[in-house]
Design brief:
42% of the residues lie in helices and 22% in strands. The chain has helices at 3-23, 59-71, 85-88, 122-147; strands at 32-40, 51-53, 76-79, 97-104, 107-116. The chain has a five-stranded mixed β-sheet with strand order 2-4-5-1-3, covered by helices on one side. Helix 1 (3-23) packs antiparallel against helix 4 (122-147).
Length: 152
């Protein structure tokens, strides 16, 4: 294969790589409700946040509480549209955190909510940036091969 053919091959690979990064859908990084649950030991004094009974929560609020409780200290982040309305309305862009005590089976838990906009993960970033960098590299290689061809 001569240099011109190699340059054309590099361009044929570079163009789809470049367009893939440009046309792939961008994930929605809208506001999320982050829920963290902390178990309160018996006898620990509760603060001023209101207390709700677990059984009085809506089914979706119970499911969110249970999922956040099993996640431990990692918390749970869900899009605001998917969060229970009773809890999603507790926080906003201005009031970023709020909490409630939940009484379940005689135990008290503090569930606190945070309004966040998540940042893209490294994997998501590399899936968009990798092809773009590959395309730039192959385009540069193609230009180099074309410019350094020997004229006969």
């Amino acid at each position: 294969m001569n240099r011109r053919q190699l340059a054309m091959l590099a361009l044929v690979i570079a163009v789809p790589l470049f367009t893939t990064g440009l046309v792939s859908p961008v994930p929605d990084y809208g506001p999320h409700l982050e829920a963290n649950v902390e178990h309160l030991p018996d006898g620990k004094e509760r603060g001023e946040n209101p207390t709700v009974e677990y059984r009085n929560l809506s089914t979706s609020a119970q499911q969110l509480f249970d999922r956040a409780n099993t996640n431990g200290h990692n918390g749970l982040s869900v899009p605001m549209d998917d969060a229970p309305k009773s809890w999603a309305t507790l926080v906003s862009e201005k009031e970023k955190t709020d909490g409630r005590y939940v009484q379940k089976d005689g135990q008290y838990y503090l569930i606190y909510f945070t309004w966040v906009i998540p940042t893209p993960s490294l994997v998501t970033l590399m899936l968009r940036l990798g092809p773009l960098l590959g395309a730039v590299g192959l385009g540069t290689l193609a230009g180099f091969l074309i410019l350094t061809t020997e004229k006969r």
